[in-house]
Amino acid sequence: MPALAVAGATTAATAGLVAGPPIASLPIGEQQAAAALASFRQSCPGLLRRDDVSGLTRREDWRAACDAARQVNGGAGGPALAFFQQQFEAVQVGDGKAFATGYYIPEIAASRDRRSGYDVPIYARPSDLIDVDLGQFSADLKGKKIRGRVEGTNFVQYHDRTAIEGGALANKARVLAWAADPVALFFLQIQGSGNLRLPDGGLMRIGYDTQNGRDYTGIGKLMRDRGLLAPGQASMQGIVRYLHERPEEGAAIMRENRSYVFFRELSGGAVGAMGYEVTGAVTAATDPKFVPLGAPVFLSMDRQDASSLWVAQDTGGAIKGANRFDTFWGAGAPAEAIAGGMSARGTAWLLLPVGTLARLNAGAAAGGATTPRR
Q1: Helices (H), ranges, 308-374
Q2: What's the CA dihedral at 209, 136, 56, 79 to 10 degrees?
Q3: DSSP helix/strand/coil, 252
């Protein structure tokens, strides 16, 4: 397909679209399709309720596909695959060049109460953290939000990682539990949810609640740029090993990521940004400005395990821009091994309800803001 990239694009609608191949020509198996259908069906209430900030779809665009999804039953003849072939069309956003990483549900040692060996706080949302919807103040800022706190009569940035680790949240945030290892907690924050293995063998599940509003800095790239990681050490496992072997230097490196995540206790499984439970090898985190939350995406990558049909049910602080994906792999050692080493490149095809591209083309021809192309 022709390369297409619009400099400075801030949404999929301004990045440009290219019509993709027929869904039937994509190498999607019935098992993949059935798993993706279950997650898509789960996402339908959100698709029909949310405003799509990518600029590609309207709520009503999804109604026919969601109605059809409820009618699909298992059985012979590939009903799930036929569903996607009949209800969707593939489009390429921008140049379509995709990059995918992986995330999983980690398990770390922690205690509900502070005790010897467990002294790293895992915080709930602070009482003084404020979300501001800038769209309430200007139509030009619709869809943009910031987080911060009030200091006197000023609204200022919220405390960064260094300040929080230094005690800035005293009397402002409840401690859900106490972790045994600061490096393990750091990576649990990156994953966004996890399991806490308690001293008595019990399990406490926690999930992402909010974040301090500071920009995310990937320490893996930072360490590679500084020559701290030898070839082959750039995986999550290699980074963890380096941080553990050099505790003081490791603490300083982690503090260069000023972003800090706050958690809440969960009664069920891990929940994504749409509010639904995420599914291993099916759910992907994306940037909602370029992929509608709840939309299916087919990734054709240089890693076979990442080449599959995914459903955009989550977001992430580091997952920004067109064709950037973070694939979810579930819990356990196999999931950790895949997610920790995931770095795949290839092509992404966004699946949109049939007729979407024609509508966007008609809007562009009439002087609309979108820039789709065939």
Answers
A1: 333-341, 356-365
A2: 40
A3: helix
Crossing angle for the helix pair 236-245 and 333-341, to the nearest 10 degrees: 90
Count of CB atoms situated within 10 Å of the CB of 143: 14
> Could you give the angle at the alpha carbon of 230 between the alpha carbons of 225 and 233, nearest 5°?
100
Q: How many helices (H) and strands (E) does the chain have?
A: 11, 18
Residue 90 β-bridge partners? 351
Residue in this structure with the two tokens 């790239």, named with its chain if needed: 221
Residue recorded with tokens 């709520």: 59
Nearest to 314 by CA among 60, 101, 160, 95: 101
Residue with tokens 């809007």: 363
Angle at 346 between CA 328 and CA 323, to 5 degrees: 65
By three-state DSSP, how is residue 194 classified?
strand
Residue 140, φ and ψ in degrees, nearest 5: -70, -20
Question: What is the rounded distance in angstroms from the CA atom of residue 88 to the CA atom of residue 357?
Answer: 11
Give the strand pairing for 372-373 and 17-19.
parallel
The β-bridge partners of 175 are: 123
**What share of residues in the chain are helix, strand, coil (percent, to 5)?**
30, 30, 40
* Cα–Cα distance measured from residue 148 to residue 278, given in angstroms and rounded to the nearest whole number: 28
50 token code pair: 């949310």
Distance CA 320, CA 289 (A): 9
The residue among 155, 341, 173 whose CA lies nearest residue 260 is 173
Q: pTM for this structure? A: 0.75
Q: What are the mean pLDDT values of the chain's consecutive 10-residue runs (374 residues total)?
A: 58 93 96 96 96 95 96 71 97 96 94 97 98 90 90 97 97 97 96 93 94 93 91 82 96 97 89 91 97 98 97 91 95 89 95 95 67 42
**Reduced to 3 states, what is the DSSP secondary structure of residue 144?**
coil
3-state SS class at 234: coil
DSSP per position, 148-174: EEEETTEEEPPP-HHHHHTTTTTTTS-
**Residue 373 backbone dihedrals phi, psi, to 5 degrees:** -145, 155
The C-alpha atoms of residue 346 and residue 302 are separated, in whole angstroms, by 6
Q: Of 249, 255, 305, 316, nearest to 280 (Cα)?
A: 305
What token pair was written down for 317?
A: 């602080």
